[in-house]
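Why do we bother with a discrete structure alphabet at all? Because it lets us treat a fold like text: something you can write down, compare, and reason about line by line. To make this less abstract, here is a complete entry for Putative Flp pilus-assembly TadG-like N-terminal domain-containing protein. Read it the way you would read a sentence in a foreign language you are learning: slowly, and without expecting to understand everything at once.
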Amino acid sequence: MLRTIRAFWQDQRGIALVLVAITLPAIIGFSLLAIDMSRVNNLHNDLQKGADAFALATAAELDGRSDSITRADRALLTLVSNQYTFSTTPGPPPTLAAAGVTRRYLRSLPATDNLPIVAANVITDELNDARLARFVEVSVNPVGFAAIFPASFLQAGANNSFNVGAVAVAGFTSGVCDFTPVFICNPFESDPNGITLEQAVADTALRRRLIELRKVGNGAAAGPGNFGFLEPPAGVGNGAQALAQTIATSRPIGCYSAEGVDTKTGQNAGPVQDAFNVRFGIAANGHFNSPEYGPAANVRKGASSGNGNGNGNGNGGGGGGGQCPQYNQLTFGSPNMGLPRDASTPNMGGRMGDGNWNFSGYWSTNFSSASYPSSWNTTKPTRYEVYKYEISAGLVGTASTGGEVGTPPNSCQPPVTSVDRRLIYGAILNCNALEQTNDLSGHSTGLPVEAFGSFFLTEPVSSPSDDASVMVELVDITGRGGQGTLDNFLRDEVQLYR
């Protein structure tokens, strides 16, 4: 008997069944937990991916324009339709919109991601402050999830259901690359007639208004129609000559963000005058003697020099013997004629014209009976349109009544044809508003950019002094208000921040 009991006690056959029976509840429980974790993770991923997509589509419209929030809301409602599964919502997989999506537009983000978004970050007046919206926070209302694992098994009265939600924050950044380190105070910032920069770019009558720029600093305050300098790219150098080189070159390397640019303290205007005037085939006192600083393909400016036409071609002359002339060797005016200034300057304190310039006199002086687009008889062109037509119609080499041609001097560097050298580029700042808390003639950082713009140089800069005038026409701006000619400079990026 004892032997039988001992044999039974030592017999291990069937022990696996006992162990399985004992551990089966735990195995089933852990399996259910794993399935539930996978289901809730998939649900959260669906919601988060949808929130991310909503945020990115919405943020892509936050370009600093007055209608940016209107367009952003439209994108939020129409551009994304994500489905999600594993929620307690009955029926087929619902869309994210059915779950409910809310948004907040933000002017800024906290310094670090672990800090919460507070009232100071949020745009409260969406109608008037739409331009300030740079980020959007998209929240998906939490949806129900029912777990398979019986939570009441662990604790009486425990609930198997809970909610799952998602939040995403995205922002829009815009900038330009290969841009010159110049800022220009928005000439339409405080326009008495309410004209905006976007309206000016879209209207030929406004674009042909001649604008007189003056350098911020000793010559002028930081107000509409003045210009200054931005910090050049790293490695360029800090001196006046280094700054002038970045302005004079046909291959600038600077990149600047619309979120903020840094100004550079005022520099000697002498090299800067040279940096502008090399574009007209005017010698730069021994500087900029390489092809990247060559003149524009059309340098007609209404000048003569000695017995020549001011450009060293055709009749000879050009500073003597066909040489690239110095500015002080040129005589401007009759019998030659450059692009004229406006008849009157009623705008911007006498520094912006009325757009009424003597096109017929310019054309008859320089091209006599050559034809031009008939539409110009009813809608006067901008000076930039005329300049471009001279090139496209092969009129650059046509001599004026005084013998001037638009072909650059023979002894200058070869003309640059890969880019338009008569255009200057700059960040357009609302200087009136910024000057309240910044010194734009000194070193100010993080200044928001209204737009990046291009301006046509209508005539050489006449003086090396700080109060010298730079005469320009507005050509185009970046963004939705522009005409697209600056798209090759533009770098728009939308990214997730949280």
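What the structure line is telling us, in plain words: The chain has two domains: 1-175, 178-491. Residues 239 and 398 are 40 Å apart (CA to CA).
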